[in-house]
From TrEMBL:
GO terms for molecular function: catalytic activity. A motif (Histidine triad motif) lies at residues 102-106. The active site is at 104 (tele-amp-histidine intermediate). InterPro entries: Histidine_triad_HIT (IPR001310), HIT-like (IPR011146), HIT-like_sf (IPR036265). This is Histidine triad (HIT) family protein. It comes from Cryobacterium psychrotolerans. Pfam families: HIT.
Length: 118
């Protein structure tokens, strides 16, 4: 359950192992797993284990060190999978393509599928 008292997001349910995912990295506060609908040869979702922040703007304002940790874990994931050249995409708001309102980034490596960034 989140600290906000909201319904658990789909990502919180992955953190709790209530639904399966291929987890590729995990720290005390961050988790990364393969996207269920990959839009690139490497497509990993990276998120905070708690869901109190809806998007990157809220996270950056409240806990910049946690955002920095997320970016550092993303770099490690990308180093292992892409050789260090990658996209790190934070969709922010519905019209920007955000569908899960639990802060997360997409780590994408290789050629994107056509239309995948809108
Ligand atoms: P958004 O659209 O919010 O930026 O990104 C949400 C991402 O989460 C999408 O790329 C979507 O494919 C992914 N996703 C949604 N549900 C699941 C799930 O149950 N498992 C996994 N691994 N990824 C999911």
């Amino acid at each position: 359950m989140s600290s906000s008292g909201a319904e658990p997001s789909i990502f919180s349910r992955i953190v709790a192992r209530e639904i399966p995912a291929t987890i590729v990295a995990e720290t005390d506060r961050i988790i990364a797993f393969n996207d269920i609908h990959p839009q690139a040869p490497v497509h990993v979702v990276i998120t905070t284990k708690t869901q109190q922040y809806r998007n990157v703007v809220e996270l950056a304002a409240a806990e910049p060190a946690l955002l920095a940790e997320l970016v550092d874990v993303a770099r490690q994931v990308a180093d292992e999978r892409t050789g260090g050249e990658f996209r790190l995409v934070f969709n922010t708001g519905p019209s920007a393509g955000q569908t899960v309102f639990h802060v997360h980034a997409h780590i994408m490596g290789g050629q994107l599928k056509e239309g995948s960034l809108g």
